[in-house]
Amino acid sequence: MTTSRNSPTHSASFYTNTPTRTVSVQGVDFAYRELGPREGVPIVLLMHLAGVLDNWDPRVVDGLAARRRVIAFDNRGVGGSGGSTPDTIEAMAHDAVLFVRALGFDQVDLLGLSMGGFVAQVIAEAEPRLVRKVILAGTGPAGGPGIDKVPALTLRATLKGALTRQDPKLSLFFTDTASGRRAGRAFLRRLKERTQDRDKNISLLSLRAQLKAVKRWGRQSPSDLSVVRQPVLVANGTNDSMVPSQNTLTLAARLPRSELVPLFPDAGHGGIFQYHDEFVTRALGFLTS
């Protein structure tokens, strides 16, 4: 069931039963889910490449929502959101700002994962009054090493997954070790906990646009991160094969008010999902400090 922003909804206590709602953004409906306390600065979740609402780990969302108002949404043209998917990170950031303002917020925190971390960096620089604090996970700066190879890696993993009947997120998000494979399987089980009102998968057309945007970000000239004045928490696994972990260390070094979470051991791109309890504890501490 999808409801409008002004429709009455029951108070959901878990992400798996949070209703999907929509808000009109310049005539285009954006799908989102909202849970947690009503007071305080909300934290807006910015999704990874090809991700929809059902790709957020419910343990991360529920952990954050135990103390913070959390809002997850589908990018333009993705999942339950209308419109055409942009092929630049800057346009995605513009959409996210319009979405936040359509909900009536004048200040938010951001959690950007992978591609969502690219978007978060652009928003933090362009809208300093809108953004209070930022969490960047499994992501990197414009022009960061290896980022332009993400589209090729994604396509190879998707093809391999189709041939082996294995979800490509297992190889893209987790290490090929016993603990990594175990964590990956547990993560995929959690993503299936929601059984009703599930989101639509990304279309091939939208995926192409996002792949183009990510490749452009990886080939851009490095941006001046010294202008990002907000406090930023940076997190990743030690062995990120998508956005190489060195990018996380670079972000921590170049952002003037950064705080680095020690890289999660034997973890990859999905490190915040593999170590969800530790990540949530660190994130809440950062957001409330």
TrEMBL record:
Transmembrane region(s): none
AB hydrolase-1 domain boundaries: 42-273
Domain of life where this protein originates: Bacteria
Protein keywords: Hydrolase
MF annotations from Gene Ontology: hydrolase activity
Name of the molecule in the record: Alpha/beta hydrolase
Record lineage: Bacteria, Bacillati, Actinomycetota, Actinomycetes, Kitasatosporales
